[in-house]
Amino acid sequence: MGKVYIVGAGPGDPDLLTIKALKAIQTADVILYDRLVNKQILQHAKEGADLIYCGKLPDYHMMKQETINHFLVKYAKKGKTVVRLKGGDPFVFGRGGEEAQTLAEHGVAFEIVPGITSGIAAAAYAGIPVTHREASSNVAFVTGHYQKEENFEEKWKALATGIDTLVIYMGIKNVKQIERLLIENGRDPSTPAAFIHWGTTDKQKTVLCTVETLAGTVESEKIENPSLIVIGDVVQFSSQLSWFEPELKDPALSEAL
Prior knowledge:
Layout (H helix, E strand, L loop, with lengths): L2 E6 L10 H9 L2 E4 L5 H4 L7 E4 L2 E2 L2 E2 L3 H13 L3 E6 L9 H10 L3 E5 L4 H8 L13 E5 L8 H11 L2 E5 L5 H10 L7 E6 L7 E6 L3 H7 L6 E5 L6 H4 L9 H6 L1
Parallel strand pairs: 1-6, 1-7, 2-3, 2-6, 8-9
Antiparallel strand pairs: 4-5, 9-12, 10-11, 10-12
Keywords: Methyltransferase, Porphyrin biosynthesis, S-adenosyl-L-methionine, Transferase
GO molecular function: uroporphyrin-III C-methyltransferase activity
Protein name: Uroporphyrinogen-III C-methyltransferase
């Protein structure tokens, strides 16, 4: 019987890969990797390792989750050392928990190797501290979509005014609804917000706006996935602390903030 390592590859910058993740990749016989994994990281795989792409696009799964689960069990039972390589952290909207459950049910040994999640790293690369003594004492990491049976509107009622900093993953598709629900449930429409596209990579683009201009900014700036949304007063620090990009979009807003 082999073993499976469910590994977080980090947010995109290959230098943010952890040492433990690197060791797992270097020893793996099989690596099943996602779309958001930086391809430079795969160069650390040993010669002869099988690299299997499990790419997932919004609303389109090249490989279904059930198939991925099957491969993890299949290769481990063949005695292989398997790495399931996922962008960010496998337990933060990465479905790593579901994969670990499958392995446990089939009696396959596994380890979880945490990764740096984009919710913290991309914000930091944009000069946005998700907490700050003067602006935020709490932060929530939120998915921008829910399973159909869940009540999307009820979730956002609690988030609108109860959390200082909102970090929203996968929120582009439902940005109009998110903007509406935040304002309807008491969030100040002028609250600073930011979109961070391909955070920590050489394609990173940060666009500043406000809660009331979220949807309009997506349209005018043609913002696409993968993009993170950060909402809260901490966004105001971006104009001062941004160190990774030469300049922010919407300089007028930067000055106002």
